[in-house]
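Sequence in, structure out. Go.
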Amino acid sequence: MNANVFKKNELLAAQVIKGLNSRNMSGYYAKNKEEALKTALDLIPKKSSVTMGGCTSSDEIGLTDALKNGDYNFIDRNKYEDRRAAMLDGYGADVFISSVNAMSDDGVLINIDGNANRVSAIANGPKKVVFIVGMNKVCPDTDTAMKRARNVAAPSNAQRFGLSTPCASTGKCFDCKSPDTICCQFLITRYSRHKDRIHVILVNEDLGF
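Output:
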């Protein structure tokens, strides 16, 4: 990575972490994927029950494999015949792993969901939530973050899942009511009432969508 971009991200991350702290959330900066993995595992006690929705960022830093193969009770929804049962089991987990679709540089988290299992677990359920966030997802303000979530993250995920939505074919949000829409619930997390519940690891990489 270009040294100027690296320094810019480092300074921006410091600003974001300050914003997160003001919102009763904890922020961390990782210079690379390896450092992000170590930080995440430091936040997840051995023997804990851990779950996640689909989280490409976790896959990309090696966290998903580390949880599956390590000394953790990993609730793997892909091993359940009943996906809803996996989701319900996940609400009682010690730790929920996620990313964000976008966030503002003052610490507001934006997430969009289709089935609401991810946004509902972020809002309430697991005792701790650990976010893995590439610096590519940090935006100047909440409005820009929402636009990113709708016009970058949502179309990319619709394409990834092979869905028949207008955004999957055009790459742009149409505020559709398609049966395949994944933009059913919007969660804006601006403050955590519970101290030490939400932890955001900012990674000096482009991660996820």
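Check: The domain at 3-107+114-139+185-203 is CATH 3.40.50.10420 (Rossmann fold). The two ends are 19 Å apart (CA to CA).
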